[in-house]
C-alpha cells in the first residue's frame, strides 16, 4: 500500500510557508525482527463512525464587498482557493440574515415593521449588491452543489426589548466595555425578541429563505439565532432555551411547514460556543421540538470542550454536529482586536497581555495550530460539518460597522490582490485529506505530543491528519492491518498522510 506524507512548514521569522512531500515505505510487520511498540499511531479502518460532509466558510457582506473590488481574474482565483477542487473544496457557505458585525452598516430587510406589519416592503436588494453576485460566482466553481446556511444576528430593532448588558468575557469576543442607552431597543448589545412578535419574525425568516431560493441559491439550513447567549457590541439577540423552543414549536416550524419548507430546510439551534451548548440544547430538545431540529451548530471561542460534542452525539445520535464559526481574535498583522495606544495595554486582561509579547507572525502561526487542533478534536468527538467565519477580510480586520477587527484565512490587500495565511494552508491541507463523504475511522495515538485523526474517504483511501505542536521532531510508526509506515513529524508542523492502493 502506497503512502504519501505532506508536511507544512512555517517560518515565524518571515511568515513563509513551504511544503515537503515524502513517500514512506510500507513494512510488513510480521517480517520484521521485532515488534514495534513505541511511538505507534494505530489505525483501524474496520471501526467507522460519523460521516464528514465537508468544509466551508462564511460569505459575509464584508467578504463579498472585498471580493467584488478585485478584478474578475483575481476574484476567480481567490474563490477557487476555497471552492475549487484543488482548494478547500468548500461544500458549505454561511450567510447572515440582515446585518451582522461583518456588514458595512446596520440594515434590515424591512426598514420599519411596525409601520409595515404585513412586511409588504420586504426586500433583499441589499444582498443583491455584493453578497448574492459573489456567492453565485463561487457556486459556479464547485463541481458539486454548495449548501447555504442562513443565520440571523438580530430581529428588526422595532421588535426587540432594550439591551440587557451582561458581563460577557471581553477577551472572548475581542471587545471592550461600551456605554449604551439601556432604555431604547437596539440591533446591537443584545436585547430579546418580544413574544408578541414571534409570529412576525417567523414569517420574516420564511420570506428571507424564499427570496434566496428565488435567486437560485441552494439554501438548505437555517440556524435560529447566531450566538444565542452573546451580548455583543454588534448585532445580537439573546434567547433562553425555553424561549427558543417556544418560538420553534409555536411559530417558526408551523410557518415553514405552511410554506412547504419543513422538508427542505434543516433547522439548527444554539450556533454559539461549545462550553454552554449542552444545557441550552437539552432545554430546547424537550417535547416536540426534538423532531423539528436537524442539528446543532457551535463556535470555538471559549476553548476545546470536545467532550460536549460527544455528550450531545451520544444523547441525540440522529442530529448533525456542525462547527459554524471560528476565527483568530485579532486584527491581521496585529496581536489584538483593537489598535490601542501602548499606555492602555496595562489595563488589558492578563491573557491578552501575554499575547502582546508575541510577534504578529507568531500569532498568525498560533491561529493555524488552533485551527488544526480544533478540527482534529471536533472530528474525533463526532463533528459532521465544518464552516469557518469570514472567507476574507482586509488588513484592518474588516471593514465592518463596529470598531475592531478579527483575522481570516485570506487577506485582501490594498492593491487588489490577496494573501493566503498559514491558517488557510492548514485548512486546505486538512480538507484535501478529508474529502466530502469521508467516514471517521478508529485511531489510537501513543501520547499527548501527537494530535491525530483519521478517515476512510469515499474513494477508499485512508486520510490521516497529524499535528506536532512540540518544538522537537517526533518519530511515529503508523500501523494498520499488519503494515507499518515509519515517519517523522518535524517540530511545529502539520502532516497529512494518505494511504492508497499500490496502483493509485
**Quick one: CATH superfamily of the largest domain?**
Glycosidases
Spatial sequence of strands, sheet with the most strands? 2-1-21-18-17-16-4-19-20-3
Terminal CA distance reads 9 Å
Main beta-sheet annotation: 10 strands, mixed
Regions with little confidence, pLDDT below 50 for 5+ residues: none
What structural class is derived from the secondary structure elements?
alpha/beta
Descriptors:
TIM Barrel, 2 domains, 12 helices, 504 residues, 8-stranded parallel β-barrel, 10-stranded mixed β-sheet, alpha/beta, 26% strand, Immunoglobulin-like
Give an account of the 3D structure.
The chain has twelve helices and 21 strands. It is globular and about 85 Å long. The chain folds into two domains: 2-48 and 440-500, Immunoglobulin-like; 54-436, Glycosidases (TIM Barrel, Alpha-Beta Barrel), CATH 3.20.20. With 504 residues, it is an alpha/beta fold. 48% of the residues are buried. Helix 11 packs parallel to helix 12. The mean pLDDT is 94. This is Glycoside hydrolase.
Summarize this entry quickly.
It comes from Parablautia muri. This protein is an alpha/beta fold and 504 residues long.
Write the layout of secondary structure elements.
Blueprint: E1 2-10, E2 17-22, E3 26-28, E4 40-52, E5 54-58, H1 61-68, H2 72-83, E6 92-97, H3 125-129, H4 131-141, E7 147-152, H5 170-173, H6 198-214, E8 219-223, H7 241-258, E9 266-273, H8 277-284, E10 295-299, H9 306-315, E11 320-325, H10 350-355, H11 360-380, E12 385-390, E13 393-394, E14 410-412, E15 418-420, H12 422-433, E16 438-445, E17 450-456, E18 462-468, E19 474-480, E20 483-489, E21 493-500
Parallel strand pairs: 4-19, 5-6, 5-12, 6-7, 7-8, 8-9, 9-10, 10-11, 11-12, 13-14
Antiparallel strand pairs: 1-2, 1-21, 3-20, 4-16, 14-15, 16-17, 17-18, 18-21, 19-20
Helix pairs in contact: 1-4, 2-4, 6-7, 7-8, 11-12
InterPro entries: GH, GH30_C, Glyco_hydro_30, Glyco_hydro_30_TIM-barrel, Glyco_hydro_b
GO molecular function, one term: glucosylceramidase activity
Keywords: Glycosidase, Hydrolase, Signal
Amino acid at each position: 500500500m502506497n503512502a504519501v506524507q505532506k508536511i507544512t512548514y512555517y517560518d515565524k521569522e518571515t511568515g513563509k510557508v513551504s511544503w515537503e512531500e515524502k513517500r514512506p515505505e510500507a513494512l510488513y510487520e510480521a517480517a520484521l525482527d521485532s515488534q514495534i511498540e513505541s511511538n505507534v499511531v494505530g489505525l483501524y479502518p474496520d471501526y467507522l463512525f460519523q460521516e464528514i460532509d465537508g468544509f466551508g466558510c462564511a460569505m459575509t457582506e464584508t467578504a463579498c464587498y472585498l471580493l467584488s473590488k478585485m478584478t474578475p481574474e483575481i476574484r476567480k482565483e481567490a474563490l477557487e482557493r476555497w471552492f475549487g477542487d484543488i482548494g478547500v473544496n468548500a461544500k458549505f457557505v454561511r450567510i447572515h440574515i440582515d446585518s451582522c458585525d461583518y456588514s458595512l452598516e446596520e440594515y434590515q430587510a424591512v426598514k420599519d415593521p411596525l409601520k409595515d406589519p404585513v412586511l409588504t416592503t420586504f426586500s433583499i436588494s441589499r444582498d443583491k449588491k455584493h453578497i448574492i453576485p459573489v456567492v453565485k460566482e463561487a457556486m459556479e466553481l464547485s463541481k458539486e452543489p454548495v449548501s447555504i446556511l442562513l443565520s440571523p444576528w438580530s430581529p428588526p430593532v422595532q421588535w426587540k426589548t432594550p439591551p440587557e448588558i451582561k458581563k460577557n468575557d471581553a477577551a472572548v469576543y475581542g471587545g471592550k466595555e461600551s456605554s449604551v442607552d439601556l432604555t431604547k431597543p437596539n440591533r446591537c448589545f443584545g436585547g430579546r425578541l418580544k413574544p408578541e412578535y414571534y409570529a412576525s419574525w417567523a414569517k420574516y425568516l420564511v420570506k428571507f429563505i424564499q427570496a434566496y431560493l428565488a435567486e437560485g441559491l441552494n439554501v438548505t439550513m437555517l440556524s435560529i439565532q447566531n450566538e444565542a447567549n452573546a451580548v455583543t457590541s454588534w448585532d445580537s439577540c439573546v434567547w433562553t432555551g425555553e424561549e427558543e423552543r417556544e418560538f420553534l414549536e409555536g411559530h417558526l416550524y408551523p410557518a415553514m411547514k405552511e410554506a412547504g419548507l419543513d422538508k427542505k430546510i434543516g433547522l439548527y439551534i444554539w450556533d454559539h460556543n461549545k462550553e454552554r451548548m449542552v444545557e441550552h440544547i437539552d432545554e430546547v430538545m424537550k417535547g416536540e421540538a426534538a423532531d423539528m431540529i436537524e442539528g446543532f451548530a457551535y463556535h470555538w471561542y471559549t476553548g476545546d470542550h470536545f467532550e460536549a460534542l460527544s455528550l450531545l452525539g451520544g444523547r441525540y445520535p440522529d442530529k448533525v454536529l456542525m462547527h459554524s464559526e471560528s476565527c483568530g481574535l485579532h486584527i491581521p498583522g496585529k496581536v489584538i482586536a483593537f489598535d490601542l495606544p501602548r499606555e492602555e495595554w496595562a489595563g488589558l486582561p492578563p491573557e491578552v497581555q501575554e499575547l502582546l509579547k508575541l510577534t504578529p507572525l507568531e500569532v498568525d502561526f498560533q491561529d493555524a495550530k488552533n485551527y488544526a487542533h480544533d478540527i482534529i478534536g471536533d472530528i474525533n468527538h463526532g463533528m459532521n460539518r465544518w464552516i469557518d467565519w469570514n472567507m476574507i477580510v482586509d488588513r484592518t480586520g474588516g471593514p465592518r460597522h463596529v470598531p475592531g477587527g478579527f483575522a481570516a484565512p485570506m487577506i485582501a490587500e490594498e492593491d487588489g490582490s490577496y494573501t493566503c495565511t498559514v491558517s488557510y494552508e492548514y485548512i486546505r491541507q486538512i480538507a484535501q485529506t478529508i474529502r466530502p463523504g469521508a467516514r471517521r475511522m478508529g485511531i489510537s495515538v501513543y501520547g499527548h505530543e501527537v494530535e491525530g485523526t483519521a478517515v476512510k474517504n469515499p474513494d477508499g483511501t485512508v486520510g490521516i491528519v497529524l499535528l506536532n505542536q512540540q518544538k522537537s521532531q517526533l518519530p511515529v510508526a503508523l500501523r494498520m492491518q499488519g503494515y507499518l509506515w515509519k515517519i517523522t513529524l518535524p517540530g511545529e508542523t502539520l502532516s497529512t498522510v494518505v494511504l492508497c492502493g499500490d496502483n493509485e
